[in-house]
Amino acid sequence: MWKKIFSVKNKYRGVIKHKVITILGIKISIKVSNRRLNTIPYQYKVNSKYLHNKEMVDAFELDQDRNDLYNYFLASREKTTNKPHHYFHIYNKHFQKYRNKPVHVLEIGVCKGGSLKMWKNYFGEKAQIYGVDIDPACMKYDDPQNGIHVLIADQSNRDDLKRLVKNLPLIDIVIDDGGHTTNQQITSFDELYDKISENGIYLVEDLCTNYWKPYIDSPITFVEYAKEHIDALNAWYFDSMNLYTDTAGGGKMEMPVFTKITHSISFYNQIIVFEKQRNHVPFAEYR
Ligand SMILES: C[S@@+](CC[C@H](N)C(=O)[O-])C[C@H]1O[C@@H](n2cnc3c(N)ncnc32)[C@H](O)[C@@H]1O
Residue with the nearest Cα to atom 16 of ligand 1? Predict the structure, then answer.
Protein backbone atom coordinates (compact mmCIF):
# COMPACT_ATOMS: atom_id res chain seq x y z
CA MET A 1 0.00 0.00 0.00
CA TRP A 2 1.30 3.45 -0.98
CA LYS A 3 0.29 6.50 0.96
CA LYS A 4 0.77 10.20 0.40
CA ILE A 5 -0.44 13.01 2.59
CA PHE A 6 -0.89 16.52 1.27
CA SER A 7 -2.54 19.68 2.51
CA VAL A 8 -4.73 22.29 0.90
CA LYS A 9 -4.94 25.75 2.40
CA ASN A 10 -8.50 26.98 2.79
CA LYS A 11 -9.13 30.61 3.62
CA TYR A 12 -11.99 30.03 6.05
CA ARG A 13 -11.33 26.58 7.46
CA GLY A 14 -7.54 26.51 7.80
CA VAL A 15 -5.35 23.77 6.39
CA ILE A 16 -7.19 20.62 5.33
CA LYS A 17 -5.26 17.33 5.25
CA HIS A 18 -5.86 14.83 2.48
CA LYS A 19 -4.65 11.22 2.13
CA VAL A 20 -4.08 9.54 -1.20
CA ILE A 21 -4.04 5.74 -1.00
CA THR A 22 -3.23 3.25 -3.77
CA ILE A 23 -4.14 -0.38 -3.05
CA LEU A 24 -2.28 -3.05 -5.07
CA GLY A 25 -1.72 -0.50 -7.80
CA ILE A 26 -5.30 -0.93 -8.97
CA LYS A 27 -7.72 1.10 -6.96
CA ILE A 28 -7.07 4.72 -6.07
CA SER A 29 -9.23 6.30 -3.46
CA ILE A 30 -8.89 9.59 -1.65
CA LYS A 31 -9.64 9.70 2.02
CA VAL A 32 -10.02 13.15 3.49
CA SER A 33 -8.62 13.07 6.98
CA ASN A 34 -10.13 16.35 8.10
CA ARG A 35 -12.93 15.47 10.55
CA ARG A 36 -15.30 17.98 9.02
CA LEU A 37 -14.91 16.70 5.50
CA ASN A 38 -15.30 13.11 6.66
CA THR A 39 -18.93 13.89 7.34
CA ILE A 40 -19.66 14.37 3.65
CA PRO A 41 -21.59 11.42 2.19
CA TYR A 42 -19.25 9.18 0.17
CA GLN A 43 -20.50 10.33 -3.22
CA TYR A 44 -19.49 13.90 -2.40
CA LYS A 45 -15.84 13.04 -1.74
CA VAL A 46 -14.30 14.33 -4.91
CA ASN A 47 -10.72 14.28 -6.00
CA SER A 48 -9.24 17.49 -4.65
CA LYS A 49 -7.06 17.72 -7.77
CA TYR A 50 -10.27 18.40 -9.63
CA LEU A 51 -11.11 21.29 -7.33
CA HIS A 52 -7.68 22.87 -7.37
CA ASN A 53 -6.41 22.18 -10.87
CA LYS A 54 -5.49 25.47 -12.53
CA GLU A 55 -6.10 24.12 -16.03
CA MET A 56 -9.67 23.29 -15.04
CA VAL A 57 -10.18 26.83 -13.75
CA ASP A 58 -8.79 28.32 -16.97
CA ALA A 59 -11.07 26.12 -19.08
CA PHE A 60 -13.98 27.05 -16.86
CA GLU A 61 -13.30 30.77 -17.34
CA LEU A 62 -13.41 30.34 -21.11
CA ASP A 63 -16.78 28.59 -20.86
CA GLN A 64 -18.40 31.26 -18.74
CA ASP A 65 -20.43 34.24 -19.80
CA ARG A 66 -18.04 37.12 -19.55
CA ASN A 67 -20.49 39.43 -17.80
CA ASP A 68 -19.34 42.69 -16.19
CA LEU A 69 -19.38 41.21 -12.69
CA TYR A 70 -17.18 38.28 -13.65
CA ASN A 71 -14.82 40.56 -15.58
CA TYR A 72 -14.48 42.77 -12.48
CA PHE A 73 -13.66 39.72 -10.35
CA LEU A 74 -11.12 38.38 -12.85
CA ALA A 75 -9.42 41.77 -13.14
CA SER A 76 -9.25 42.30 -9.37
CA ARG A 77 -5.82 41.93 -7.77
CA GLU A 78 -6.78 43.08 -4.24
CA LYS A 79 -7.38 39.58 -2.78
CA THR A 80 -10.29 40.87 -0.69
CA THR A 81 -13.02 38.51 -1.83
CA ASN A 82 -13.10 34.78 -2.49
CA LYS A 83 -15.91 33.55 -4.76
CA PRO A 84 -16.19 30.34 -6.81
CA HIS A 85 -16.06 31.17 -10.52
CA HIS A 86 -19.38 29.53 -11.33
CA TYR A 87 -21.25 31.96 -9.05
CA PHE A 88 -20.90 34.88 -11.47
CA HIS A 89 -23.19 33.51 -14.14
CA ILE A 90 -25.86 32.88 -11.47
CA TYR A 91 -25.49 36.32 -9.89
CA ASN A 92 -25.75 38.04 -13.26
CA LYS A 93 -28.74 35.96 -14.35
CA HIS A 94 -30.78 37.02 -11.31
CA PHE A 95 -29.38 40.46 -10.52
CA GLN A 96 -28.94 42.16 -13.90
CA LYS A 97 -32.48 43.60 -13.94
CA TYR A 98 -31.50 45.73 -10.93
CA ARG A 99 -28.40 47.29 -12.49
CA ASN A 100 -28.25 51.09 -12.70
CA LYS A 101 -31.42 51.33 -10.59
CA PRO A 102 -31.75 52.77 -7.06
CA VAL A 103 -31.49 49.25 -5.63
CA HIS A 104 -30.81 48.38 -1.97
CA VAL A 105 -28.58 45.34 -1.61
CA LEU A 106 -27.81 43.69 1.74
CA GLU A 107 -24.96 41.21 1.97
CA ILE A 108 -24.50 39.18 5.17
CA GLY A 109 -20.75 38.65 5.61
CA VAL A 110 -18.28 41.48 4.98
CA CYS A 111 -14.89 39.95 5.85
CA LYS A 112 -12.35 42.08 3.91
CA GLY A 113 -14.95 44.26 2.23
CA GLY A 114 -14.09 43.14 -1.31
CA SER A 115 -17.56 41.95 -2.27
CA LEU A 116 -19.20 45.20 -1.10
CA LYS A 117 -17.01 47.13 -3.55
CA MET A 118 -17.74 44.57 -6.24
CA TRP A 119 -21.52 44.93 -5.79
CA LYS A 120 -21.28 48.71 -5.84
CA ASN A 121 -19.32 48.59 -9.09
CA TYR A 122 -21.84 46.16 -10.64
CA PHE A 123 -25.11 47.74 -9.52
CA GLY A 124 -23.94 51.29 -10.23
CA GLU A 125 -24.10 54.86 -9.03
CA LYS A 126 -27.69 54.75 -7.70
CA ALA A 127 -27.25 51.54 -5.67
CA GLN A 128 -26.84 51.45 -1.89
CA ILE A 129 -24.95 48.44 -0.57
CA TYR A 130 -25.34 47.30 3.06
CA GLY A 131 -22.84 44.85 4.53
CA VAL A 132 -23.75 43.08 7.78
CA ASP A 133 -21.15 41.33 9.90
CA ILE A 134 -20.79 40.13 13.48
CA ASP A 135 -17.20 41.38 13.60
CA PRO A 136 -16.92 45.08 14.61
CA ALA A 137 -13.55 45.26 12.79
CA CYS A 138 -15.56 45.26 9.55
CA MET A 139 -16.66 48.84 10.29
CA LYS A 140 -13.46 49.97 8.58
CA TYR A 141 -15.12 49.14 5.25
CA ASP A 142 -18.02 51.52 5.94
CA ASP A 143 -17.95 54.09 3.14
CA PRO A 144 -21.33 55.87 3.06
CA GLN A 145 -20.01 58.60 0.69
CA ASN A 146 -19.69 55.87 -1.91
CA GLY A 147 -22.95 54.06 -1.12
CA ILE A 148 -21.36 51.33 1.03
CA HIS A 149 -22.71 50.95 4.58
CA VAL A 150 -21.48 48.45 7.16
CA LEU A 151 -23.67 47.37 10.08
CA ILE A 152 -22.77 45.10 12.97
CA ALA A 153 -25.28 42.35 13.72
CA ASP A 154 -25.49 38.63 14.38
CA GLN A 155 -27.42 36.92 11.62
CA SER A 156 -28.61 34.22 14.02
CA ASN A 157 -30.06 36.75 16.45
CA ARG A 158 -33.66 37.56 15.61
CA ASP A 159 -33.62 40.85 17.56
CA ASP A 160 -30.57 42.01 15.59
CA LEU A 161 -32.30 41.15 12.32
CA LYS A 162 -35.53 42.91 13.37
CA ARG A 163 -33.49 46.01 14.25
CA LEU A 164 -31.79 45.90 10.85
CA VAL A 165 -35.08 45.75 8.98
CA LYS A 166 -36.46 48.59 11.10
CA ASN A 167 -33.49 50.88 10.53
CA LEU A 168 -32.79 50.24 6.85
CA PRO A 169 -34.72 51.26 3.74
CA LEU A 170 -36.66 48.50 1.99
CA ILE A 171 -34.11 45.92 0.81
CA ASP A 172 -34.39 44.49 -2.73
CA ILE A 173 -31.66 41.86 -2.68
CA VAL A 174 -30.23 39.78 0.18
CA ILE A 175 -27.04 37.76 -0.32
CA ASP A 176 -26.29 35.42 2.59
CA ASP A 177 -22.51 34.88 2.67
CA GLY A 178 -22.17 35.02 6.44
CA GLY A 179 -21.20 32.34 8.94
CA HIS A 180 -22.66 29.55 6.75
CA THR A 181 -24.14 27.44 9.56
CA THR A 182 -27.56 26.01 8.79
CA ASN A 183 -29.15 27.73 11.79
CA GLN A 184 -27.77 31.12 10.68
CA GLN A 185 -29.05 30.58 7.14
CA ILE A 186 -32.54 29.49 8.26
CA THR A 187 -32.94 32.18 10.95
CA SER A 188 -31.87 34.97 8.59
CA PHE A 189 -34.19 33.76 5.83
CA ASP A 190 -37.05 33.38 8.27
CA GLU A 191 -36.65 36.93 9.59
CA LEU A 192 -35.80 38.73 6.35
CA TYR A 193 -37.54 37.06 3.42
CA ASP A 194 -41.04 38.48 3.81
CA LYS A 195 -39.63 41.90 4.81
CA ILE A 196 -37.75 42.56 1.56
CA SER A 197 -39.38 44.26 -1.42
CA GLU A 198 -42.19 42.48 -3.23
CA ASN A 199 -40.06 41.76 -6.29
CA GLY A 200 -36.98 41.10 -4.19
CA ILE A 201 -34.37 38.37 -4.47
CA TYR A 202 -32.92 36.24 -1.65
CA LEU A 203 -29.73 34.34 -2.48
CA VAL A 204 -27.94 31.96 -0.12
CA GLU A 205 -24.47 30.82 -1.14
CA ASP A 206 -21.73 28.40 -0.09
CA LEU A 207 -24.29 25.68 0.61
CA CYS A 208 -21.47 23.13 0.54
CA THR A 209 -21.48 23.66 4.31
CA ASN A 210 -24.90 21.97 4.52
CA TYR A 211 -23.06 18.69 3.92
CA TRP A 212 -20.41 19.33 6.61
CA LYS A 213 -21.32 18.32 10.15
CA PRO A 214 -19.73 21.24 12.06
CA TYR A 215 -21.95 23.67 10.14
CA ILE A 216 -25.17 21.74 10.76
CA ASP A 217 -26.65 23.27 13.91
CA SER A 218 -30.37 23.02 13.19
CA PRO A 219 -32.78 20.04 12.94
CA ILE A 220 -32.75 20.31 9.13
CA THR A 221 -30.23 21.93 6.82
CA PHE A 222 -31.00 25.05 4.80
CA VAL A 223 -31.02 22.92 1.64
CA GLU A 224 -33.67 20.65 3.16
CA TYR A 225 -35.62 23.67 4.38
CA ALA A 226 -35.56 25.16 0.88
CA LYS A 227 -36.71 21.84 -0.61
CA GLU A 228 -39.75 21.92 1.68
CA HIS A 229 -40.63 25.30 0.22
CA ILE A 230 -41.09 23.73 -3.21
CA ASP A 231 -44.32 22.22 -1.87
CA ALA A 232 -45.37 25.59 -0.50
CA LEU A 233 -45.09 27.04 -4.04
CA ASN A 234 -47.88 24.61 -4.96
CA ALA A 235 -50.03 25.10 -1.89
CA TRP A 236 -52.83 26.49 -4.11
CA TYR A 237 -53.61 22.90 -5.04
CA PHE A 238 -53.54 21.33 -1.58
CA ASP A 239 -57.12 22.39 -1.06
CA SER A 240 -58.60 19.76 -3.32
CA MET A 241 -57.15 17.16 -0.96
CA ASN A 242 -58.62 19.00 2.02
CA LEU A 243 -55.13 19.52 3.39
CA TYR A 244 -55.90 23.15 3.96
CA THR A 245 -59.21 22.60 5.69
CA ASP A 246 -59.11 23.87 9.22
CA THR A 247 -61.38 21.31 10.81
CA ALA A 248 -61.29 22.92 14.27
CA GLY A 249 -62.51 26.28 13.02
CA GLY A 250 -64.70 24.77 10.33
CA GLY A 251 -63.17 27.09 7.74
CA LYS A 252 -60.22 27.11 5.37
CA MET A 253 -56.70 27.62 6.67
CA GLU A 254 -54.77 30.62 5.44
CA MET A 255 -52.55 30.04 2.42
CA PRO A 256 -48.89 30.21 3.55
CA VAL A 257 -47.45 33.70 3.15
CA PHE A 258 -44.57 32.18 1.18
CA THR A 259 -47.01 30.88 -1.47
CA LYS A 260 -48.53 34.31 -1.96
CA ILE A 261 -45.23 36.18 -2.30
CA THR A 262 -42.88 33.80 -4.16
CA HIS A 263 -42.36 33.48 -7.88
CA SER A 264 -39.62 30.83 -8.01
CA ILE A 265 -36.91 28.90 -6.22
CA SER A 266 -33.77 28.11 -8.23
CA PHE A 267 -31.36 25.42 -7.05
CA TYR A 268 -27.76 25.58 -8.25
CA ASN A 269 -24.42 24.11 -7.29
CA GLN A 270 -23.92 25.70 -3.82
CA ILE A 271 -26.51 28.43 -4.35
CA ILE A 272 -30.28 28.74 -3.87
CA VAL A 273 -32.13 31.80 -5.17
CA PHE A 274 -35.67 32.79 -4.18
CA GLU A 275 -37.39 35.34 -6.42
CA LYS A 276 -40.41 37.15 -5.04
CA GLN A 277 -43.55 38.46 -6.68
CA ARG A 278 -47.09 39.07 -5.48
CA ASN A 279 -49.17 36.12 -6.69
CA HIS A 280 -52.86 35.98 -7.51
CA VAL A 281 -54.95 32.84 -7.29
CA PRO A 282 -53.90 30.87 -10.39
CA PHE A 283 -56.59 30.17 -12.95
CA ALA A 284 -56.72 28.42 -16.31
CA GLU A 285 -59.30 28.70 -19.07
CA TYR A 286 -60.02 27.32 -22.52
CA ARG A 287 -59.38 29.81 -25.30
C1 LIG B 1 -17.30 34.29 3.86
S2 LIG B 1 -16.93 35.72 4.80
C3 LIG B 1 -17.72 36.99 3.86
C4 LIG B 1 -17.03 37.23 2.56
C5 LIG B 1 -17.55 38.40 1.76
N6 LIG B 1 -18.98 38.34 1.54
C7 LIG B 1 -16.85 38.39 0.43
O8 LIG B 1 -17.37 37.76 -0.52
O9 LIG B 1 -15.80 38.99 0.33
C10 LIG B 1 -17.95 35.44 6.15
C11 LIG B 1 -18.15 36.59 7.12
O12 LIG B 1 -19.30 36.27 7.91
C13 LIG B 1 -19.12 36.81 9.19
N14 LIG B 1 -19.98 36.11 10.15
C15 LIG B 1 -19.76 34.93 10.78
N16 LIG B 1 -20.78 34.64 11.60
C17 LIG B 1 -21.67 35.66 11.49
C18 LIG B 1 -22.93 35.95 12.12
N19 LIG B 1 -23.46 35.13 13.02
N20 LIG B 1 -23.56 37.09 11.76
C21 LIG B 1 -23.03 37.94 10.87
N22 LIG B 1 -21.83 37.73 10.25
C23 LIG B 1 -21.16 36.60 10.56
C24 LIG B 1 -17.63 36.62 9.48
O25 LIG B 1 -17.21 37.55 10.46
C26 LIG B 1 -17.01 36.85 8.09
O27 LIG B 1 -16.55 38.18 7.96
Answer: 179
